[in-house]
Amino acid sequence: MSETVDFVVVGGGSGGCAVAGRLSEDASTSVVLLEAGGTADNWVVKTPYALSLMVPSKLNNWHFETVPQPGLNGRIGYQPRGKGLGGSSAINAMVYIRGHKWDYDHWAELGNAGWSYADVLPYFKRSENNTEFNGAYHGQSGPLHVDRLRTDNPVHEIFLQAAREAQFRIRDDFNGEEQEGLGPYQLTQHNGERWSAARAYVHPYIGTRPNLRVETDAQATRILIEGGRAVGVAYRHNDQIREVRARREVILASGAFQSPQLLMLSGIGDAAALKTHGIDVVHHLPGVGQNLQDHPDFIFAYQSDAPYFTGTSFTGIARILSTIGQYRREGRGPLTTNFAECGGFLKTRPDLDVPDIQLHFGMAMVDDHGRKRHWGTGFSCHFCLLRPNSRGSVGLSSADPFAPPRIDPNFLSDPSDLETMVAGYKTTQRLMQTPALRALQQKDLFTANVRTDDDIRAILRERVDTVYHPVGTCKMGADNDPEAVVDSRLRVKGVGSLRIVDASVMPTLIGGNTNAPTIMIGEKAADMIREEMRAN
């Protein structure tokens, strides 16, 4: 006999944790949260430095790969995604960025009522507990802790000096009135520990809210559809297939790769594509898995023996080991690093209305997502293209629910993306060639022989990959949008009682990191659901 509750939330990532936590605040509303990974509440997740253990490996990580990318010389890309409560917020670099006001106003202009910047700002503020900023743009009473860096790294001042030498603006708050400029990032941390979406919305209530049941190691295999509406979810737990049924709604929050995958496994998607895998079509919805957007990213890296950086060397390892006591006592020091400690938003052309590239200045040399190690210490500087024109897709590799999805970001397929990245390379290089940063560089790992624009194009195709911000595969859109999967209230079109609450609903990629916006989507979804419950 299966369990029946009001809401079944599939996926304990940023959107799923936020919506499950908020809905379960009402003691009369019962919620089951299904998460394929574990609880993600141990020292590896809580210690910021340990992201270097998780991102390159299968530790709390789905460890996906892409299909070969023609725009990247046929290379297979890497797509780490968080597996465990908190989802990718449990393994990411914790950078707290909302995106630009323009992005949300653009969503509204595309026909998504209620998603303008003025509409979403209250939800960003509601979620946020910011130690540094308050007022019109920030909150200080939400469950998501946001703090300044606690590494006490003197290189921040060197980075700011380099920004001044390159004649870039300095920005202390990237989530306020203006975004353009460079500076240290704020992070989703509290007292030097990672503050994932699970720590904010779920962990405190496991076992204390009788109406919230969290099932970990529970991978959904199919949404149960009866009479044109979602009535529950089948999932694997302890090698058994079980079911949980939903009186009100199934809320899908499995992320930009696995939400469309689960829809397709359940017979919701493009009918012809489903039939090729022998899946019975429940509802023809051709936009499922289309519209994949991600930030293509390039990394400059330099060897340096300056005492600010980490790496694979006797001195680098000794430096980290020597600070364990400080971290335990004070929650400060190098173990609180998110690696991408500084950065910001720049325009490759002065006539642009909004910044088109983002920088992440890292405290270690990074090669192939940390999967290739170089002896020595040093630093890196990423730049990514914020609003690429290329569009990819997510499909099924088979009808097996435990097989990975077929991921095709289609990076640099639009020629304009390559040319904007050439401009982004030159803009970032201006910063790297300032006296302040040149003084730190002993060896240029990747770009020492890059001279011409053709050289830049070649090195981009050789080295570009994701910076971990996939969105858009269950696109929110108006009724006349043939690619739209959900409406502006995040309800799946043509299937009753089924809603999607994660980054897959974003119609376009926002100009920045996607974790805070996904939490905002979870907050806003909970409000919309409560409104509908009151109306009914």
TrEMBL record:
Cofactor field: FAD
Domain of life per record: Bacteria
Positions that bind FAD: N92, A93, M94, V95
Alphabetic keyword roster: FAD, Flavoprotein
GO molecular function, one term: flavin adenine dinucleotide binding
Annotated InterPro entries: FAD/NAD-bd_sf, GMC_OxRdtase, GMC_OxRdtase_N, GMC_OxRtase_C
PANTHER family assigned to the protein according to its UniProt record, in alphabetical order: CHOLINE DEHYDROGENASE, MITOCHONDRIAL, GLUCOSE-METHANOL-CHOLINE GMC OXIDOREDUCTASE
Protein name: Choline dehydrogenase-like flavoprotein
Organism: Rhodopseudomonas pentothenatexigens
Lineage: Bacteria, Pseudomonadati, Pseudomonadota, Alphaproteobacteria, Hyphomicrobiales
